Amino acid sequence: xxxxxxxxTLREITxxxxxxxxxxxxxxxxxxxxxxxxxxxxxxxxxxxxxYRAIYAGEVPVGFLMLEQRPEEQEYTLWRLMIDxxxxxxxxxxxxxxxxxxxxxxxxxxxxxxxxxVERPGNPGPFYESLGFVYTGDVDGDERIMRLLL
Length: 150
Description:
This protein is of the alpha+beta class. It has helices at 18-23, 37-44, 92-105, 125-130, and strands spanning 8-11, 50-57, 60-70, 75-83, 112-118, 134-140, 143-149. The model has no long low-confidence stretch (mean pLDDT 95).
């Protein structure tokens, strides 16, 4: 990211910020690869293992991130990462994922972070690989599993 770019932070979603987070959306050709923020937030409320945050660049909300945290089983998974179409290719996703990785490293027994993606054109596999994730060879439904050793 450029030196003059605003810092990326992960923030709790509040009643005051909910509307802004729900309004964020990926590009039309990416919609089949990531759930909407509304669906993700609804799912999070029924999964106590979900840890979710809004991604901000300075004071501007630019995305959403959600982890599955199971410290009792020492399992941590990146469930969702989305950057709004108007804010992509600015380094915000990279910075947000690095913050999430640092968060997971500090959790009990964390030795790896898993994620997955569907196999279709424009998938985020190369992005995850650029941050050190590797394919495990495992598949869950139509999603290829990746692992980052911490």
